[in-house]
Amino acid sequence: MPVSLQLLSQFTLLKPLPREALEPLSSRMSLRQFARRAMVMSKDSPVQELGFLVEGRLQGVDFTVDGRSVGMYFVDPGDYFGELSLVDGKAPSEFVVAAVKSTVAFLDANAARELILGHPELAQAVMARLAQRVRAVMAQRTLLSLPNPFQRLCVLLLQLPQRSVDGTVEVDQAPTHQELAIMINASRETVTRAFQILFLNRVLIREGNSLKLVQPALLKDIAEGRADPPKA
Asked: Which sign does the torsion angle of CA 164, 139, 82, 178 carry?
């Protein structure tokens, strides 16, 4: 089904475009729904598309040679994914799965390339995104080199998108324990035990889907090896 202009204007990448540039995209994009844990984009697929998340949450993942999943990044509503294939014309470098039930708008690769190359501001945004991905991969490699999973978890918590609410640092829509576990190469049970300790010592407080970082300085000290994890 066609994607409405109102919906198109909500996507971060497309916001700079005037209405006349958005109108041709409406009929060239398609909406698809995905159940939780369903495959949204496969690195084994020859089909190249640029995806825009309408609702839900996605996670970019890959697998080690022994079959363990490694989390790489999250996609939240309004964001896009699949841009690497548009640049080099090759298959995606990772799998994208639905972390929750999600709706995605897809634009075929040829139309996406024409759009980006025809609008310098979009090309600049995609270049900035690719640079961000490289930096994130480098940070992830550093994180995974740490020997202690508790320390890796603290590093990751500090890397998640944050906002300040009444002077307190807060992570909105915090990932699940399973999602965090595959980001730090640990078991879900290990992450759950670490959270129990952090909650018990009031380093973190959970409110609904949000996490309040009550003692961010302590998290940073643990992450950088200057302090030991608190006791249970």
From this structure: negative
Note whether 47 and 136 are same-domain residues. Answer: yes
Question: Is the same domain home to 153 and 117?
Answer: no
Distance CA 139, CA 166 (A): 29
Rounded to two decimals, the pTM is 0.78
Per the DSSP assignment, residues forming a β-bridge with 39 are: 97
Q: Are 121 and 16 in contact (CB under 8 A)?
A: yes
Q: pLDDT tens, 17-55?
A: 998 888 888 888 999 999 999 999 998 887 789 999 999
pLDDT, residue 1, reads 60
Residue ending a domain, among 102, 122, 143, is 143
Residue among 210, 190, 151, 180 nearest 72 (CA): 180
**Residue 129 sits in the same domain as residue 201:** no
Q: Residue 22 is which amino acid?
A: L
